[in-house]
TrEMBL record:
Location in or out of the cell: Cytoplasm; Nucleus
Any one GO molecular function term: DNA binding
Broad class of where this protein is predominantly found: cytoplasm
Gene that produces this protein: Stat6_1
GO cellular component, one term: nucleus
Protein name (record): STAT6 protein
Any one GO biological process: cell surface receptor signaling pathway
Keywords associated with the record: Activator, Cytoplasm, DNA-binding, Nucleus, Phosphoprotein, SH2 domain, Transcription, Transcription regulation
Domain SH2: 114-224
Organism: Fregata magnificens (Magnificent frigatebird)
Pfam families the UniProt entry points to: SH2, STAT_linker
UniProt cross-references to InterPro entries, sorted A to Z: p53-like_TF_DNA-bd_sf (IPR008967), SH2 (IPR000980), SH2_dom_sf (IPR036860), STAT (IPR001217), STAT_linker (IPR048988)
Domain of life: Eukaryota
Length: 234
């Protein structure tokens, strides 16, 4: 006899997300010589970071993995703690419940459901943008405001939506004549939206966007992602 790789039987497509979470946790954290079906209930956060990074790179098929600041944002999200430092999180452990059982505060989904939505969106619509490091992605709305509030009018960046599963949003700064700044977040784009019109073309369409944070002109950053516009009857 031999132990197989983990298998989950589901009866409906809406269980697919939870099944993937179970398989991922089992593959990443079970011991080779374990009693069948026994998996650790808690794992070190550093191990979880490695797992999420490997999963992200494999799913999206990119060589550009997650960065230290991405892990910091993900730790704040999964532990619901915005006061701890990066070093504080490194000594913590994360539970299966925090990963895919407990609903995120103020949301209707778990951490894994949200992360899996980001994976699907990036894999299907944003692979080249991510690989060119044009998307910061894993960053909080509050930190975006801090970054952009001192920047010139029209500076923008891209982040994954906190409120929607599988959405990417554009945050940009508007400067008033009196010098005051306001950071606006555009309604998130989903896979459906980006299959109708690509992210690059949407950025080209939006005249209020000028420079990708910190200071790259948008045509220079996204020019290779623009589609040639059709003219005439087409």
């Amino acid at each position: 006899q031999v132990l197989s790789l983990p298998i989950v039987v589901i009866v409906h497509g809406n269980q697919d997300n939870n099944a993937k979470a179970t398989v991922l946790w089992d593959n990443a954290f079970s011991e080779i010589d374990r009693v069948p079906f026994v998996v650790a209930e808690r794992v070190p956060w550093e191990k979880m970071c490695d797992t999420l990074n490997l999963k992200f790179m494999a799913e999206v098929q990119t060589t550009k993995g997650l960065l230290k600041e991405h892990y910091f944002f993900l730790a704040q999200k999964i532990f619901n703690d915005h006061s701890a430092s990066l070093e504080d999180f490194q000594s913590r452990s994360v539970s299966w419940a925090q990963f895919n059982k407990e609903i995120l505060p103020g949301r209707g989904f778990t951490f894994w459901q949200w992360f899996d939505g980001v994976l699907d969106l990036t894999k299907r619509c944003l692979k080249s943008y991510w690989s060119d490091r044009l998307i910061i992605g894993f960053i909080s709305k509050q930190y975006v405001c801090k970054l952009l509030s001192t920047e010139p009018d029209g500076t923008f960046l891209l982040r994954f939506s906190d409120s929607e599963i599988g959405g990417v949003t554009i945050a940009h700064v508007i400067r008033g004549k009196d010098g005051s700044s306001q950071v606006e977040n555009i309604q998130p784009f989903s896979v459906k939206d980006l299959s109708i019109r690509s992210l690059g073309d949407r950025i080209r369409d939006l005249g209020q966007l000028r420079n990708l944070y910190p200071n790259t002109p948008k045509d220079q950053a996204f020019g290779s992602h623009y589609n040639k516009e059709q003219t005439g009857k087409d």
